[in-house]
């Protein structure tokens, strides 16, 4: 999402098409992350906006896409359970301030000391967390909890779905499998010039049309409520009563974990870029400040 200089119209058209595909993929993914985090689904729209437009414009990692972090959903869910969603908005904003301070202090450079094997391990772990959760979604169910619980309940989830043909869960699974089949086979089976269309577009189109009138589980964007007014009131109360001190530790923890995940991902993508001879200039401290600014604005 970071603008890249180009002099060819074909490059610009590919950038536009890539951004459209990214939006279509990021929207349902972000909605799922919001639900897994115990936050209102509408908050995903805020996170997409701040991650794409604000962080993308300031990013020090041109090939990294910013948005709701699936790897942090368990941590945020714990904060929502303990402090409530309104307090979490303050925690997120405070975490962003900590990230900006870390970037100004140029502490992001220490990510360069992390071995490549650790980077690959972190990305593998994040991938497994996402897969474990999304398998439940494929079967039409919600994510049961933390990654360990997701793995433990996989058998029960699919057993319930497979043993109830014709149910909303079963129809959701068939739709998901059909979507995956289209995504995997599109470039081989699409006729002629249709091959230039990224596979994700027809896959998402199929899923949307197939489930239009089916009673499958859907994400509903309910009225998010007047969180702004409640957050301002809560913030004033926190300041006056010094209760904000109890949110400093969660905010600092969130900042450290989010910073580590963001910078490790940026570093891993940078390694892949150099492996494929793609010239990219990674500025970890600028990326850290951009992520902090995005979190501040997202919390606000």
As a percent range, the share of helical residues equals 55-70%
Assembly annotation:
single chain
List segments where confidence is low: pLDDT < 50 over at least 5 consecutive residues: 1-7
Beta fraction of the residues? under 5%
Reading the helices and strands in chain order gives HHHHHHHHHHHH
Cα end-to-end separation:
22 Å
Annotation, overall tally of beta strands: 0
Structure annotation, total helices:
12
Give average pLDDT, whole number.
81
Q: Per the principal axes of the C-alpha atoms, what is the gross shape? A: globular
Main β sheet profile: none
Radius of gyration, in Å, reads 21 Å
Structural class: mainly alpha
Could you characterize the architecture of this molecule?
This protein has 300 residues and is an all-alpha fold. The chain has helices at 9-36, 43-58, 73-83, 85-104, 116-138, 147-152, 154-162, 168-189, 200-210, 227-241, 245-275, 284-299. Helix 2 packs antiparallel against helix 12, helix 4 runs antiparallel to helix 12 and helix 8 (168-189) runs antiparallel to helix 9 (200-210). The two termini are 22 Å apart. Residues 1-7 have low confidence and may be disordered.
